[in-house]
Design brief:
By secondary structure, this protein is mainly beta. It is built from 3 helices and 72 strands. It starts with 8 loop residues before the first helix and ends in an 8-residue tail after the last strand. The structure holds calcium ion (CA).
Length: 745
């Protein structure tokens, strides 16, 4: 019945009767508009099958919502917004569902956080769960506990037969998995949940374990089946930590999802009988983008398309792990009876077999097939690695192209393949071959997920996107200009002296630079203990300036830039380009950059700059001292700069603990000249550069004179430390303590 125009007279009568029945039913159902928390609670208590409770538009502050009731399959109880997107839940708030056949639609959680463990929970209490219930078209946007390492979940599914679909989930910045499915009681097992058409927007690097986007189960219940289907979701730059999705239960299906430039992998961490098919992993060359990690029994991985993935080791495009013999439930079960077929892997750097092989993980994959896969790299790369005996994997009909040092495996044939783009936008071999992903693989669009009425995350740079403001020298002219500026603006300084009598708070991305055509650098002086404080939302770029610390107070622990002394949720950036910094020595321990615990930089980038006469560190990123795998900065780059008479270190970077859930810190140090660095009596590191627990360190073409040595302490994982072409004059050679020498686990 597409239109009345096609109906016979008898059909019209039927249609009229049906309409009448519907409107009669409507009169029996309450459709109440609630305006207060009390009205909401009364409407929920009175709700009967078929009722709709509509929340009035506006901001609902500090509201712990409990939506409980018993609907029926045909007549659910619905909680909705007067206008979708116009009902904002803020402050200290959350939502708990309990009962049967409940539907939540159209709410926005913003500007607040949950007082409990969850923002949306499919249970009210341990015994009151939700079943056959649905949350749809709901937004959770930056609804973060202000304490970065205070852990909570945004969505927790309990019960059975629930659905979470068409939701928009963006910007989780505090610790804790974004969304999880719990199997912690029988009533939540064999649950047949559906998670579909959601937009999982960007999640920044957490700098710690606990940044997964989705987890299904836990190791404790991992031999229990979940039967959760995760289908047609868009994971947009979900970079929290090494696992984007951690499947820890049985019989889950991951189908038709897109992982766009997301760092980490979909990991079949625990549990058996899972299926991963028809997904797209689009790394587009972004570091640490990964694909699928295979562990356990009877897993199927087929018809996936993996492109431009740069991750390595356990974060590679496709990683088949070794297991632990008679593994405890929380370690690694052997890969067994699994199937990997018809996947396409293009321009991805690492495919790993028997990964993680060591004294403990010695159980190699068995009775597993790897067939009709296509692996192509257009820049010849040693992309296939075999770490142990793989005779338990049956290779058949796979084609590899552009691989260097391909292991001799029959069933893995090296031959030239030319790729062309198909109508679905994906690359396929020019000559049809019976390998790789199917030609009609459907490509999910970003706009098919989430809701149309709430904007998805944008792209682009933090800095230099706004307007230029030119200012003149004087007292506090810079502070005034910063206060006026908008996000992304550029403040240009004419030549002369800028004296700050107050701390300048940076709570948005700003550039402060010399106006063009200056023959003399503008010079910044400051009379407080710090010049710039980067606070929540702030990032700072300094260019073409001079900074002189001699007007700072005669007090220890001064700094030019510091982060908020409190926890910061948003990662920040500090860029220092062509800046001359001198006389940070009014007292001891005067740092250029000083950070606080629970603050995290996406990037610290110093280049073409000069630092001299400093009584502290240049950059001190060493405040996470609890050895929990937490650290202060992801990427640190110091290049083409000079450092003279620095009492402590040019860089002090610390990441402690044995956790393996992060990619960083990364440290790049090239083309620098150091003279008399690290010799101050307060320099506990006794190092010019001190790196502890850094995962990737490169030190190249530096010269060190009359300085303390470079000290590197490698810890967990597979740390990469590369030193080359460095010169040491009256300076000890680097002291590297490799991982293993102090290994205790
Ligand atoms: Ca983890």
């Amino acid at each position: 019945m597409s239109s009345k125009g096609n109906l016979s007279p008898g059909g019209i009568v039927t249609w009229l009767l049906a309409s009448l029945a519907l409107s009669l039913a409507g009169t029996l159902q309450a459709a109440s508009l609630v305006r207060t928390q009390q009205e909401f609670n009364e409407a929920v208590s009175a709700a009967r099958p078929g009722d709709t409770i509509t929340m009035a538009n506006g901001v609902w502050r500090d509201f712990e919502m409990v939506f409980s009731g018993t609907g029926t399959e045909d007549q659910p109880i619905t909680l909705t917004a007067e206008t979708r997107g116009k009902v904002i839940i803020s402050g200290v708030s959350n939502l708990r569902l309990a009962g049967e056949y409940l539907v939540v639609r159209g709410l926005v959680f913003r500007d607040g956080y949950t007082p409990t463990n969850e923002v949306i929970s499919f249970r009210r209490s341990r015994d009151q769960l939700a079943n056959h219930s649905r949350v749809t078209e709901t937004v959770i946007d930056h609804f973060n506990n202000p304490q970065r390492h205070e852990r909570d979940f945004w969505v927790m599914m309990y019960g059975r037969n629930n659905r979470f679909d068409h939701n928009h989930i963006n910007g989780k910045s505090n610790a804790g998995v974004t969304m999880a499915v719990k199997l912690n009681s029988e009533a939540s097992q064999n649950n047949h949940h559906r998670i579909d058409y959601n937009y999982f927007g960007p999640r920044q690097a957490l700098g710690s374990n606990g940044g997964e986007t989705l987890r299904i189960g836990t190791s404790k219940y991992s031999l229990t089946d979940s039967f959760t289907t995760v289908e047609n979701n868009y994971f947009d730059r979900c970079n929290g930590e090494v696992e984007i999705i951690s499947s820890k239960s049985g019989h889950n299906v991951f189908r038709g999802n897109v992982f766009f430039e997301s760092q980490g992998t979909l990991t079949l961490r625990h549990g058996n009988d899972n299926l991963i098919e028809n997904n797209l992993f689009l790394g587009n060359g972004v570091p640490h983008t990964g694909g699928i990690r295979l562990i356990n029994k009877r897993q199927t991985i087929r018809n996936n398309y993996l492109y431009g993935l740069k991750g390595y080791r356990f974060g590679g495009a496709l990683v088949v792990m070794n297991g632990v013999p008679d593994s405890p439930i929380n370690r690694y079960h052997q890969v067994e009876d699994s199937l990997v077929e018809h996947n396409t892997i293009i321009d991805s750097d690492h495919v790993e077999f028997a990964a993680g092989s060591d004294d403990e993980r010695s159980a190699v994959p068995i009775s597993t097939a790897f067939r009709q896969n296509l692996i192509v790299h257009r820049q010849p790369t040693a992309m296939i690695a075999v770490h142990d005996d793989i005779s338990g994997i049956r290779f058949e009909g796979n084609i590899v192209s552009g691989s260097k040092n391909t292991p001799a495996i029959s069933g893995l044939v090296d031959e030239a393949v030319t790729l062309t783009r198909s109508t679905n936008g994906l690359l396929y071999p020019r000559q049809t071959k019976p390998v790789g992903a199917r030609p009609d693989l459907r490509v999910l669009e970003r706009d098919e997920t989430g809701v149309a009425w709430y904007p998805k995350a944008g792209f682009g740079d933090r800095f230099d996107t706004g307007q230029i403001h030119t200012i003149s020298p004087g007292q506090d002219t810079l502070a005034a200009a910063v206060a006026e500026a908008e996000s992304g603006d550029i403040i240009e300084l004419e030549a002369g002296e800028y004296v700050s009598s107050r701390l300048i708070a940076i709570d948005k991305p700003l550039t402060v630079r010399a106006a063009t055509g200056q023959s003399v650098r503008p010079i910044l002086r400051f009379e407080r203990t710090t010049l710039f404080e980067i606070s929540e939302g702030g990032s700072l770029k300094l260019e073409g300036l001079a900074v002189d610390g001699s007007a700072a107070p005669d007090a220890y622990d001064n700094s030019v830039v510091r982060t908020s002394r409190y926890s910061m949720l948003s990662n920040y950036e500090l860029v220092v380009n062509d800046v001359h910094v001198a006389n940070l020595n009014t007292n001891h321990s005067f740092n250029f950059l000083k950070v606080s615990k629970h603050t995290f930089a996406d990037r610290i980038d110093i280049r073409a700059s000069r630092f001299s006469e400093i009584s502290g560190h240049v950059v001190a990123l060493d405040q996470e001292i609890d050895d929990l795998g937490i650290y202060n900065a992801e990427y640190i780059s110091i290049a083409d700069s000079s450092f003279e008479n620095i009492e402590k270190s040019v860089a002090s970077v610390y990441r402690g603990g044995t956790d393996e859930s992060t990619f960083g810190p990364h440290f790049l140090f090239t083309g620098n000249r150091l003279s008399n660095v690290g010799n101050g009596k307060r320099n506990k590191n006794q190092a010019a550069v001190f790196l502890h627990g850094v995962q990737v360190a490169t030190l190249r073409q530096n010269s060190l004179s009359s300085s303390q040595p470079v000290r590197v302490v490698e810890t967990v994982g597979d740390p990469i430390t590369q030193l080359s072409d460095n010169q040491f004059n009256q300076t000890k050679v680097p002291v590297i303590q490799p991982f293993g020498s102090s290994r205790t686990n």
